[in-house]
């Protein structure tokens, strides 16, 4: 393990993270999940990955999951996977255009930063939906028309999000269901809003997104 000694380390609770040229590694998770974890660096430092590492440590230590090879979980609102490699679980993230999972956590971190930026600007406490929770959509969303967003109170697996276009007609059309992950993949411009809590709505005017809050959406 001497090759770790010259690299910066990061400690979260009682878990230490170290790096070599290609990967970041945990030290201390084996007692919880029988293996350590590793993450391909892909130009991300331990400090940049800290919020995700914090999430993983807290999830593993507090929830005490029985992690198996191929286990998928939602990290904030994106999907990651535990892939068994010898004495480690390598953490992979979903890459839809590759129709599977790939190394690194660049996309997971990018999505998290976008969502936190919007929530912080609005002084709103983030409420991250699960990757496989359901969004109620107007089918015209699939055509590329602008998607107005409304987050109502919803019971799992409903995320509470409704996405609809200005052309939706309740008398002649029906809503459909789509997962959060599918919608974020289909319409990346709305990813930044998906952690806004119940009561928020996003209405597009041209290229401008007007964000509002409606207390009635919480009560109903």
UniProtKB/TrEMBL annotation:
Pfam entry (one): Imm33-like
Source organism superkingdom: Bacteria
Ranges of residues in domain Imm33-like: 114-208
InterPro entries, sorted: Imm33-like (IPR056509)
Name of the featured protein: Imm33-like domain-containing protein
Lineage: Bacteria, Pseudomonadati, Bacteroidota, Flavobacteriia, Flavobacteriales
